[in-house]
Write a structure and sequence with these properties.
Oligomer: single chain
CATH class of the largest domain: Alpha Beta
Largest sheet: 6 strands, parallel
Radius of gyration: 24 Å
Strand content: 5-15%
Number of strands: 8
Number of domains: 2
Helix content: 40-55%
Structural class: alpha/beta
C-alpha cells in the first residue's frame, strides 16, 4: 500500500515536471518565432520587393516622424507644423511630390533650411501599384530630378502615394538609389482633420517601437496635436526624428 502511495506521488511530480518543461519550451519557441518575424520585417523586406515598415538600424533609440505633402490642400498648415517642430527642437522627414515641389520651391527650401529631411513621394499622387516598371521609374525619376535640383542634395527615401507599392515600384525606386518605406504607426489625420483628440488617442493606442515610422500630414488637427504626438514618443522612451535616424543607409 505504501509503495502505491509513493508511486502516485512520483507520478504526480513527473507530470508536473513535464507540464513545466512543455510550458518553457513553448515560451522559447514563441519568442524565437516572433524574433524571426521581426528580423524578416526589418532586414529582408527589400529582398522580397517590399518597402520597409520600420527602420533597419538596430537599437537606434529613435522613432521617425514622416509628413506627406502631396495634394496641396494642406499647404496652409505647413507653417504651423514647422513652428511646433521648432519649438520642440525636432527634425523630421517631409515626403513631397515632385508636382508640389515644382509649385512650392520656396516652402521646400524653407523646410530644408530648418534642418528637416526631404523624401521623394513620386511626381504625382496616383496609384503606383498599377504602373509598369517604366512608368514607375519615370514618375519617381521626374520627382527625383525636381527635388534634388532644388535642394542641391540627393534624396534617399521614397514612399509611394497611399503606400501603394508593387514589385515594379520597389525595383524602380531601388534602381534609382532609394530606400522604400511605408509606416507602422498611422495617425490617419486626413480622416480627422478637425479632431486632434481622436488622433492623440489613436497614437496612444499604437505599439510604438524602436525604429517605428509615424505617418502624418499637415492638417489643422495635426498642427494642434503634434506636440502631443512628440510627447507620446518621448514618454515611450524614444527620440522623435528623421528616417535617417532609424535606417542603416548602406
Amino acid at each position: 500500500m505504501v509503495l502505491m502511495v509513493v508511486s502516485k506521488k512520483k507520478l504526480k511530480k513527473i507530470i508536473i515536471f513535464i507540464l513545466i518543461l512543455a510550458f518553457i519550451i513553448g515560451g522559447i519557441a514563441y519568442i524565437l518565432k516572433n524574433k524571426t518575424q521581426d528580423t524578416m520585417n526589418l532586414l529582408d523586406l527589400a529582398q522580397n520587393n517590399q518597402p520597409y515598415t520600420m527602420g533597419t538600424a538596430q537599437n537606434s533609440g529613435h522613432v521617425a516622424i514622416t509628413c506627406n505633402v502631396d495634394l496641396g490642400w494642406e499647404d496652409e498648415y505647413i507653417e504651423g507644423i514647422l513652428e511646433v517642430l521648432d519649438k520642440e527642437n525636432v527634425k523630421i522627414t517631409f515626403a513631397v511630390t515632385g508636382k508640389w515641389a515644382e509649385k512650392n520651391k520656396d516652402m521646400l527650401l524653407k523646410i530644408q533650411q530648418k534642418g528637416h529631411e526631404i523624401a521623394n513621394h513620386g511626381y504625382q499622387h496616383i496609384n503606383y501599384d498599377t504602373l509598369s516598371y517604366d512608368e514607375n521609374f519615370n514618375e519617381i525619376k521626374k520627382s527625383q530630378d525636381i527635388i534634388d535640383a532644388a535642394t542641391k542634395q540627393k534624396s534617399k527615401f521614397f514612399q509611394a502615394p497611399s503606400g501603394a507599392f508593387c514589385d515594379d515600384t520597389v525595383k524602380a525606386a531601388n534602381d534609382l538609389g532609394y530606400i522604400c518605406y511605408k509606416w507602422d504607426v498611422d495617425t490617419i489625420d486626413w480622416m480627422d482633420k478637425d479632431n486632434p483628440d481622436k488622433i492623440i488617442e489613436r497614437i496612444k493606442s499604437k505599439d510604438i517601437k524602436d525604429g517605428s515610422i509615424v505617418l502624418m500630414h499637415p492638417t489643422k488637427a495635426t498642427t494642434m496635436c503634434l506636440d502631443d504626438i512628440i510627447s507620446i514618443i518621448r514618454t515611450r522612451g524614444y527620440v522623435p526624428g528623421k528616417l535617417s535616424d532609424v535606417f542603416n543607409e548602406q
